[in-house]
Amino acid sequence: MSNEISGGNFFGPVLQVGHVHGDITIQLPAEIPLALGGLPRASPTFTGRGTVLDDLLGMLGPSDSEKGVIQVSAVSGMGGVGKTELVLQAAHAAREKGWFPGGVLFVDLAGYDERLRVDPAAALDGFLRAMGVPAEHIPSELQGRERLYRSVLDAYAHSGRDVLVVIDNAFSSEQARPLLPGDSVTRTLVTSRHTLAELGARLLDLPTLGLEASVELLDRRIRLARGDGDTRVRDEPEDANEIARLCGGLPLAIEIVAALLSERPQRSLRTMVEDLEDEHTRLDEMRSEERAVQAAFELSYRNLPPDQARVFRLVSVNPGPDISTAAAASMVHLELRHCRRLLDALARAHLLDTPTADNRWAMHDLVRLYAAEQAHALAAADRQEAAVDRLVEYYSDTARSAAEHADPSRTAPSDTSFHDREDALSWFDAELPNLVGVVRRMGEDRPSVALEVHLSLVHYVQRRRRFTVLTDLGPVALEAARRLGNRHGEARVLTNMGLAQNEMGRYEECVRSCRAAAEMFMALGDRALAGRALNNLGLGLDNLGRYEEAAGVFRRAIGVFRELGDRRGEGAALTNLGSALLLAGRVEESLDARRDAVAALDQVPGRPDWQGMAMTLQNLGASLNALGRHTEALAVLRRALAISGELDDDFGRAQALNNIAISARGLDRHDEAVEAALQAASLYRDCGTAGHLISPLLTAGWSLRTLGRYRESVTAHREGLDCARRAGNLLPAGQHLEGVSASLRLLGEFHEAVRAQREAVSTYVEAGEPATARAAERELNRLVRATGGGRFRRLFRGR
Fold this sequence. Notes:
It comes from Allostreptomyces psammosilenae. One of its GO terms (molecular function) is ADP binding. With 799 residues, the protein is mainly α. The protein is built from 36 helices and 9 strands. It is 65% helix and 5% strand. The strands form 3 sheets. Strands 4-5-6-3-7 form a 5-stranded parallel β-sheet, sandwiched between helices. Strand 1 and strand 2 form a beta hairpin. Helix 18 runs antiparallel to helix 20 and helix 23 packs parallel to helix 25. The N terminus and C terminus are likely disordered.
């Protein structure tokens, strides 16, 4: 059997069968994604760190078999000492030497700013996207992202395309650890103000610059700005030494002072020394290194013209880690070009970072803290409250426009702010941290804004599969709606939370959220949204194995949609009804429901609902499978698979492959069944929908056992059992336990086989399946008799 998987690039664990016997392989893109080349530029004035840079490069270089590989190097030192610059210099030098042909992953964790701190799950999401992993493949939960991240890095390493990982500004080992690679090849650089001994890394403590290096940095920065004709440092060596001393050997402070001197080429170093000494006297209660940075900030800030100083203060109150030129212009109430000039001036003064290609501006965390202190002191003079109102209005208005474009049901959005859907989704990508910050900060003061921004995110979250955004912000948005007395908004938030909870496998929570939402919508007379909430409620019940209850809820939703003439909604609910009926054992009724669903979707006006049609075809195929009409089912399911492929819908592909595996097994084509089932399981993992693994792993376990691959069968069943237990789905949990038992007895492991079969019996009893429990108990008795009778009864009695 061939192990080649055709049809495009597969990311995440694509489990292949045949000669590889279940090994995990990943097909990488032919070219390195551009994001892997997105390392921030290194400073041309870097100096004074030659020895430590050589040490760091020695850790990154090709391994010496006798010395071994240093996989993680952690650079620690105080804020402003130059940790980030050091690792950037090392990363660029290593790339130039050809050591990391796969590129560099870089993230600033903003660990020392509680408001902006990046959690590991969000950082992994960014890394996976940078490596070209499609959004729909990225799991929702941290563990799934870690597993996929390490698998992709391992694949890069084993294909000869080593990647360097740079984790900047980590607050703790706990924040950095999930981002560490799992293979023995990929190298990692970490920076922190703390010594992260718990990482098991090679530790490197970065001291402040010595006097000579500090003076050299001052000279280089001035001459970079003014040219070699500016000889003030050489002409005034004593004053240059004093400036270096007053800056405490901190590159950040030296660069700010150099920027001040560059702005005024006629200014002598002596006057700068006097100003710095004045600031140090005023700040003499601080530690010396704190005084150095604070004094540099004070001097630079006091030299700003009033309009630049105001922008500097106001930018610090932005709720996210960076700000676009457009958002800043809205906040400070200036024309875009004028605002851009002011931001450029702040960057030249080293009070803002150099802007990125997409016109986004950020601050060093120490600078942000200083700016926020000034902003607080001058809030009234700056009319800060009005500025924040304008900023929040910009985010909420633009999010509303982007949401209209992101809605797949809108064929011609009335708003023209975005070129197309992808343009709107890209805006959400860039602004998501700011939008999350708006919801969190505005929940109490401006609840209407928090609610509106939360509701605007739903289509984006569905497309990018960032469901944790809705669940994390849901409580804030709910409280905002309740503060406003907005019952309709409250119900919409609950519906969105239920949708996300279902996708994340949190089915009990989904049922509670959607039931409450449906009741609210009905009471408010909004039958359209009540129908959608009922549909989501049915999905949660279905995933909990409460099939009859789910079928009743789906029928209620169908009635609502028919009454409203909503053929799209009717088709979706009929499709889901067919699934519940099938799982309840009512196969003929399931087939009728799914045929009705196809008919309803054929009558959707305007743009065809291809995604809905693919799902309906998948489910129709499932019903045909249940009737033993596997050849018919395969034809329907292959059409569904093709549509999902055209839509780049990997969740849909997983659904189709799951059912194709069942068809192939029914036709005794077990090799095909295993291949399709394991591909489906892989795609489900990548999509972060662990609850859906239960079915393909059951099929894989059965067919692997038929093929004589007993150990692999046990592995598949045990993973499926774990998924079923986490989802609270007891019936398939019992089926997986019986599968474990059957394969173990064929391996001769009779004690464990009896244990698994006994557990299956108790699981069926707990699930309220007495007939299935009795059948499993009869099998248990046969097994006990065949393997030692009374001895086994005594051994396992009461366990």
